Amino acid sequence: MQTVTLKIDGMTCGGCVKSVSRVLTGIAGVQSADVSREQAQAVVTFDEQATNVDALIEAVEDAGYDASK
Ligand code: 9UX
């Protein structure tokens, strides 16, 4: 398992937090995602055999938010 903190911009309400959480936890290999609007970040723990940081970022961006490492 690997844990990464992603910077996420564009979450403007609690619904956004739920959306980002759903997107991240829906990715195969993601074990947990702790998303904070106040901190504009997501702490994600994932199996590096199943996915990678770039895929996490891409999924969040596809959902309409700005993500970076
Ligand atoms: Mo709130 Mo976010 O109405 O994508 S859910 S702004």
Beta strand count:
4
Query: How much strand content do the residues show?
Result: 25-35%
How many helices? 2
Unreliable runs: none
The helical percent reads 25-40%
Q: Average the pLDDT over all residues and give the rounded result.
A: 98
The tally of structural domains comes to 1
Large-scale geometry: globular
What does the largest sheet look like? Answer: 4 strands, antiparallel
Give the termini distance in whole angstroms.
17 Å
Give the helix/strand class: alpha+beta
Protein name: Heavy-metal-associated domain-containing protein
Keywords: Metal-binding
Pfam families: HMA
Domain HMA: 2-68
Set down the secondary structure blueprint:
Layout: E1 2-9, H1 14-25, E2 30-36, E3 41-46, H2 53-62, E4 66-68
Antiparallel strand pairs: 1-3, 1-4, 2-3
Keywords summarizing the entry:
single chain; alpha+beta; Alpha-Beta Plaits; 4-stranded antiparallel beta sheet; 4 strands; 35% strand; globular; binds dioxo(di-mu-sulfide)dimolybdenum; HMA_dom_sf
Quick take:
The protein has 69 residues and is of the alpha+beta class.
Written overview of the protein:
By secondary structure, the protein is α+β, with helices and mostly antiparallel strands. It has one domain (2-68): Alpha-Beta Plaits, CATH 3.30.70.100. It contains two helices and four strands; from the N terminus they run E-H-E-E-H-E. The protein has a four-stranded antiparallel sheet. Strand 2 (30-36) and strand 3 form a beta hairpin. It is globular and about 30 Å long. The two termini are 17 Å apart. The mean pLDDT is 98. Bound molecules: dioxo(di-mu-sulfide)dimolybdenum. Dioxo(di-mu-sulfide)dimolybdenum binds at residues 12-13, 15-16, 19.
